[in-house]
């Protein structure tokens, strides 16, 4: 996994007295949508902390501990992470129109977008900036496909006038005319480095990417570390995801996680969660990406699992069978909800499909059964693996970590909203398979070991998929 560095500013920042620190954190959690109110109860605060800790990749203690405080000071993206149910964020028009309209399409699932840089920073040479921008767009163009779902093709073209561009890129400071003031540099407030307007925002700002020029921007990783500068390529690649309509992901490995890392573009791999975001947005919903969303949104990886960090960082040095084994060990320490007659997990799934993925009510109900089948299958799959792995000292399986998941299931991961029609099509396809007695997602037996072997192969992006 790409570990997010704690930059020196964090350490140099003078510690606030406890109460001010507390107030600042509450404000932060409220601002980014983890809290529905700026005056939370203790229970609300704990719940919000656990979700925040998961997204930031620090131990999920529910306490305002030092590690959590440091995490709130990490450089991050200006977009909110969650939508508050009651108090919808107005910072950016998070609307149903998170995709580019038809006139940008040059074919089925084929999108053509033009970009221009209207104002440069003095921190970097123009030539370097332009070639970095080319490369970051190429990353999305070349990596966004998922093997088992329809292909999406992204074309990006540099144009030579602002008026011709769909995505205008610029640097600016403080107030800069769009009512989203930048916060300056050096650990001021929340360390916002950039923000982007979704495709569905009103024109001409839609798709535009703004960088805070009060920050020191850099492309040389060594200097990022030694001079405490901001690594432009990664921030840019993340913001392009927003310009394409993607929202934040709670998965720490995803490029769309709100906390930036210093991974160079050559090494950067889109996570399956990022890829499914694009796919869902432009090619429509699919079973596979629905399960990927489930893995990010409903199943909680425990970030204090050392194996979890380990498997993602040891990719290239382990032989492939070893890699699969290690990677699947993450399952040993996750909380997987279970639908039973006495709990309301199924209703919860139904609500979530409706609210988060905009499934029409009837389809949300249908697919909540599919979600339960998937979860039940995953339980069996894990138990079987645990049995097989009894002699494996690396595999520590603990049933005791099962816990109520409602308390930590606030909104974070989101794919763009699909049309009700495309979701109905997906449901009809499954119903057709069922009526023809083909293998189908309504059959609990569908989610067997073979299914999960295949699923995790793609989910964990083994074999370069
Ligand atoms: Zn962001
Ligand atoms: Zn701006």
Question: What is the strand and helix layout of this fold?
Answer:
Layout: H1 8-12, H2 18-31, H3 42-56, H4 66-71, E1 76-77, E2 105-107, E3 110-119, H5 126-143, E4 153-158, E5 167-172, E6 192-196, E7 209-212, E8 217-218, H6 221-227, E9 230-231, H7 232-243, H8 272-282, H9 287-297, E10 300-301, H10 306-313, H11 320-328, E11 334-335, H12 345-357, H13 361-388, H14 420-435, H15 449-459
Parallel strand pairs: 1-6, 3-4, 3-5, 5-7, 8-9
Antiparallel strand pairs: 2-3, 6-7, 10-11
One zinc ion binds at residues 77, 79, 238, 242, 248, 258.
Structure notes:
This protein has helices at residues 8-12, 18-31, 42-56, 66-71, 126-143, 221-227, 232-243, 272-282, 287-297, 306-313, 320-328, 345-357, 361-388, 420-435, 449-459; strands at 76-77, 105-107, 110-119, 153-158, 167-172, 192-196, 209-212, 217-218, 230-231, 300-301, 334-335. It is built from 15 helices and 11 strands. The strands form 3 sheets. Strands 1, 2, 3, 4, 5, 6 and 7 form a 7-stranded mixed sheet that branches. A two-stranded parallel sheet has the order 8-9. A two-stranded antiparallel sheet has the order 10-11. Helix 12 (345-357) crosses helix 13 (361-388). It starts with 7 loop residues before the first helix and ends in a 6-residue tail after the last helix. Mean pLDDT is 78; it is low at 1-16, 83-96, 302-317 and 394-412. It is globular and about 65 Å long. It folds into 3 domains: 8-74, no CATH class; 102-282, 3-Layer(aba) Sandwich (Collagenase (Catalytic Domain)), CATH 3.40.390.10; 287-464, no CATH class. By secondary structure, it is an alpha/beta fold.
